[in-house]
TrEMBL record:
Listed PROSITE patterns: HTH_MARR_1, HTH_MARR_2
Source taxonomy: Bacteria, Pseudomonadati, Pseudomonadota, Alphaproteobacteria, Rhodobacterales
Name this polypeptide is given: Winged helix DNA-binding protein
Organism: Paracoccus litorisediminis
SUPFAM superfamilies referenced in this protein's UniProt entry, alphabetically: Winged helix' DNA-binding domain
HTH marR-type domain ranges (all copies): 27-163
Biological process (GO), any one: response to stress
Single annotated GO MF: DNA-binding transcription factor activity
Source organism superkingdom: Bacteria
Keywords on record: DNA-binding, Transcription, Transcription regulation
Pfam families registered for this protein in UniProt: HTH_27 (PF13463)
Listed PANTHER family: TRANSCRIPTIONAL REGULATOR, MARR FAMILY, TRANSCRIPTIONAL REGULATORY PROTEIN
């Protein structure tokens, strides 16, 4: 019986770092993707609240409520946690107070600062957003999207980029 012919073994080329131009292009693509993902996230939240018959909140306000969570914080603390500009936080917090989703009171130590926290209605909104995110995480996990590369590795990379950007901002000032 003739022996099967094996193809010659070829050496695997060593992995080399990508050229700088390719790396820059990949970085720029990541930035564009991140921006699109953020807009899509807002669209998803908008659609969810429209399905629930809640047209009184913008997606930004719903995310602000979600990020406020169970904490009692100042607007400045909330700004450092999320993706909000200073005037955006103030405007949206004012609207959320008017709508009854957030309550506020002056700080005892610094009367200029205002501490905010969710009302019962705000907690219900936070719970809806939490449920939406949990449904999406389950669907993505079932599809395998969160596995290759592992979402934890992706998050680690984004935290490194965040740290680099923060260092750049501090260096400027």
């Amino acid at each position: 019986m003739p022996q099967p012919q094996h193809s010659p073994v070829r050496p695997v080329p060593a992995l080399r770092p990508a050229p700088a131009v390719a790396r820059t292009d990949a970085y720029l693509e990541s930035l564009q993707l991140l921006e699109r993902l953020h807009r899509l996230l807002q669209d998803i939240i908008k659609d969810e609240f429209e399905r629930l018959g809640r047209a009184d909140l913008t997606p930004v306000q719903a995310l602000l409520i979600y990020n406020l969570g169970g904490s009692e914080v100042t607007a400045g603390e909330l700004r450092t946690r999320g993706m909000y500009q200073g005037s955006n936080v103030s405007y949206n917090l004012k609207k959320l107070v008017e709508l009854g989703y957030v309550s506020h009171e002056r700080c005892d130590m610094d009367r200029r600062a205002v501490r905010v926290r969710l009302t019962h209605e705000g907690q219900e909104v936070r719970d809806r957003v939490t449920e939406l995110f949990a449904r999406h995480a389950a669907g993505l996990a079932m599809s395998g999207v969160l596995d290759d590369p592992a979402i934890e590795e992706v998050n680690l990379q984004w935290r490194r980029i965040e740290r680099y950007w923060l260092e750049q901002i501090r260096y400027i000032y």
